Amino acid sequence: MTTDVHTLHRGSAPLVVSLPHVGTVIPDELRGRYVERALGVEDTDWFLDRLYAFVKDRGASLLVPRHSRYVVDLNRPSDNQPMYAGSNNTELCPTRSFAGESIYRDGQAPSATEVQQRVVRWWQPYHDALAAELARVKAEHGHVVLFDGHSIRSELPWLFEGRLPDLNLGTANGAACDPSLSAAIVAVFAAQSTYSHVLNGRFKGGHITRHYGRPALGVHAVQLEMCWRAYMDETPPFVWHEARAAAVTPLLARMIDAMLGWRPGV
Question: Which residues pair with 102 in a beta bridge?
Fold first, then answer.
């Protein structure tokens, strides 16, 4: 199913994959308000729809947005509360890039009223689709796993110190899923030595993981923030790296298979 906001592939397995930051579209009526660099939407979770396309063949549902996070961030709460208190954060409708630089021309950032209009137009339809798909899958299987996929540049001093591990798994400090699910995923990561990993490090899960993850109600959510270096070039023009992508895909497939094979209470 394709709308002007998102594309949803409905699967048959108890897994829903959300990729909220892969969109690159900035509507024509907004483009003139952004600085030139922002039109390159460099903070996109580049190519994740391509990298995770295999999940459809495994029976998972896949939800992908069209619009850039620079328009509205689908992984922020609609009340714009910061995700990581005490740290630099980008907002529901970001005004700065991950480098801390303004993405709007002077005086062109959206007002509070416009932010809520963007929520209605782009944020809410994505979340309505996600909530409905989670409900459908849970009704069919008795439980559902929500995998929220993300990627990011390895080093972003405005957001965090140093260099991130390759694979940053977040479960809202254990609140978003049964511990046996996160343990199964960590076991997949620990069984190899090529890619470094951490559980609930700098990135513990954003709004989607925290809001939808309700293990007591049969909805188990996890977020993976993967460094770009695992599958693409981290410097402009941010191109897909065939060899790196081919190398990491089998590990991602084992992670997805662990989610598909997991059952609560088993």
Answer: 96
Quick one: tokens of 23? 């969109």
CA atoms within 13 A on the CB side of 132: 10
- Specify whether the CB–CB gap between 234 and 176 falls below 8 A: no
Q: Pick from 261, 265, 257, 169: which is nearest to 221 by CA?
A: 169
Q: Report domain 6-261's class.
A: alpha beta
Asked if the model's pLDDT at residue 36 lies above 90, the reply is: yes
pLDDT in tens, 187-213: 999 999 999 999 999 999 999 999 999
6 neighbors 21 (Cβ within 8 angstroms): no
Sequence letter at residue 63:
L
Q: How far apart are CA 220 and CA 15, in angstroms?
A: 10
Phi, psi of 61 (to 5 degrees): -80, 150
- How far lies 44's CA from each of 175, 201, 208, 222, in Å? 27, 21, 17, 20
* pTM attached to this predicted model: 0.96
The percent of the chain in helix, strand and coil, each rounded to the nearest 5, is: 35, 20, 45
The residue ranges of every structural domain in the chain are 6-261
Contact 60, 119 (CB under 8 A): no
Phi-psi region of 222 (alpha: psi -120 to 50; beta: other; left: phi over 0): beta
Helix, strand, or coil (residue 207):
helix
143, 15 contact by CB (below 8 A):
no
- Look up residue 54 and give its DSSP letter: G
Cα separation, 25 vs 161, in Å, equals: 30
Taking all residues of the chain, what is their mean pLDDT, rounded to a whole number? 96
Residue 173 burial class via C-beta count within 10 angstroms: exposed 0-12, middle 13-18, buried 19 and up: exposed
Residues 6+ positions from 86 with CB-CB distance below 8 Å? none
